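re: ur question from yesterday

yeah so i grabbed the chain u mentioned. its 516 aa long if i counted rite. heres the sequnce exactly as i have it in my notes:
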Amino acid sequence: MVYKGSENSDNRYSAIFENAYDCIMLLKNNIIVDVNSKGYEMFGFNRDEMLGKSTDELSPTPDKIKDPQVGNQKGYLTKALDGEPQRFEWIHQKNDGSLFYSEISLSRLEGSDNYNILAIIRDISLRKEYERRLIEASEKAEEANRLKTNSLASMSHELRTPLNSIIGFSDLLLDEDTTEDEKEMFSKLIQSAGRSLMQLIGDIIDISKIEAGQVTIKKALFNVNSFLQDVLITFKQEKNNRNKSNIELKLILSDQASDLKIETDQHRLQQVFNNLLTNSLKFIDEGYIEFGYSSVTPENIQFYVKDTGVGIDNQKRDKIFEQYGQDKDIYNRNKEGTGLGLAISKSFVELLGGTIWVDSELDSGSTFYFTIPFEKNSGLTDKYLNKSLNVDSVNWSNRAILIVDDVKQNYVFLKGLLNHTRATILRAQNGKEAVEICKNNKSVDIVLMDIRMPVMDGFEASKLIRKDNPDICIIAQTAFASPEDKIKCVICGCNEYLKKPINHKELFSIITRHLR
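ran it thru and got these structure tokens back, copy pasting raw so excuse formatting
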């Protein structure tokens, strides 16, 4: 290191130079003449590797810089050489290729032929990450506040609407000129308004209890089929009360599980179904609503509610389970309700030890799934599982099954359904990943291919996989089935076609047939 002055002065400057917390460089224009130990530690080089490098070599190429706050910084060095100190933020690149944010100070130095610029570089990555998180948290808070404001406005409207109906029609009932037919009609309208008001009040109370941690769970043993048949009777009446008698309501039960029982809180489970079925009724004008269960694993039972309503945008599926989490489009479509029902359902399912999720496509309907666990060591499902899954007889230990689904919970449930087979289970989150896995892993025997996925859909993926592997078995699975889709699946190379929710007996039958 080159300094002019007394020996004591040189030693003092040398100590400051070497022990500084920041990277200090001496430059000749933009060439590194000297650097302290913090500098080559920061960039991941040794001292000899850094000396003689251009400062451009410590910066990434422009295509790697994606931060809009860091633009073209050319000219700073020129200004510093002209005697104007410079201070700015930049992005640097380490020896291993990783990037980090930095704050740079440039000053002109006089009195030496070996260097003319002093550069001080500080790593500010932690600060930038903290700023990013603050901005993100602020944006989330603003969005939550906006959604809450919308929901509270809706709640106020929902309270006033039935109250206005009750008060208004009550006044008309007292009018001497009101006919008997009109009195009957007004009475029915008052009843309907009263039910809406009770549901809203119930939602508000439930949310308040959940937020206060005062929800109690009382588990009891009950028959699953009998419970769901009671739900069907209730909602047939509710459907008519909402003037949607044209909507078909279907209940799907397992004919081999009439004696299946679970031990959970029946009242909370009833509330989950009430919320999900009511939600479906709000967003459907024609078609059907289907509910029930189709699959049981040794750990849990999977219930579902499926409708042919308006559907939910792919990118907004998770948001709808948040309190006040209706997005603007759904909020505009929903002519009644506060958006609390799904948040309540999620809380209740999780309190019961399960998981809830949705598989949906805009304008094609939605399927809400949720699981309720069996009590461990209860033996409640042994008879059913042994009879329907043939747990003891299935051994696919030398087979590999690829599950292709962008919804993680769908994969988790299918994996749980197949775990006892001892098969190797793989996962792809979209069609492109599935193609790569099948290309690099020729041991895959079965592909469970979801059709509606981002990046690459199941149609295109099946076509490419079939082209590369004519003998592989591809089983298409989709929640939004149509005759055209089925034909298209066959054309694209699928061997079989399953509708979601997948019936485990049908799935096992198909896989067994193709693994012979």
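noticed a couple things. The two ends are 77 Å apart (CA to CA). also The chain has four domains: 7-123, 140-212, 220-382, 389-514.
anyway ttyl
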